[in-house]
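Example 3.2
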Amino acid sequence: MRLIIITSVLLIVLASCNNGKSDENALVSYDGKSLYLSDLKESFPEGLNKNDSIKLLNKLVDNWITRQLLYDRAMRQQIHNEDEIQRKVEQYEENLVIHQYKSRLVSEKIDTTITVDQIKNYFDKHSSEFRLTDNIAKFYFVKIPKSVPNAYKVREWMYQVSNEDKLMELKEYSYQNARFYDFDNEWVNANNIYDLINEPLDDSKKFLENYTVYQKRDSLYYYFLRVNEYLLKGDLAPMDYILSDLKQIILSKRRIEFINTLESNLRREAKNNKKIQINL
């Protein structure tokens, strides 16, 4: 038996010029078996540099060689159970074919459209099942250069945001002067606040409970944050915060229901056509 390994760098250059295995140089050959670069193309993540690519390639080739040597040794010593292996191979093939068949049917037949009413109905029935694992908050945030005039007004407006006119004044001022602002007022993980105010906070629960308006400054900026609402870990999650999770759950239930119906119909059809004989 003969083992042939071709230099990795040379192979990368050569293989890049070939389109098929018939013309492609083997990375490694052993006892009539060969490994080609095209066999490994999905093992290389995008953006991998040349040196890391070479290291990964060498590792994959080494792993392939080891597998071939182990397999060859095991086959020659005849310590495996051929019937058991064949049974597992057949079972694996069945499972793979069934999985691909189900996946294709699901992708073709399942309606992936989910309406707001469907999400709301599901949430209303199961809201008690969704508890927060982190503290969350809705807030306004403004970051203003210290050189900007009248920055003190932001703090005043932050306390008066329930007044639509004051909120509009705050937004207009921020649009013109702020380095960064956020008026989305959507539920976010409270840990995100730390990044905004550029300050590590050990206890987000304490922060949310103690501050309606938070202000700080550094050498360049004023930071203003208004906590509009907050919920704590263990509270019921609001629907709009877990919207993507709810959609996935509804889709998953549709898939399960579709598969269960498919399998039930297949069994009933087979029994009606006398294709199945049960001897229990």
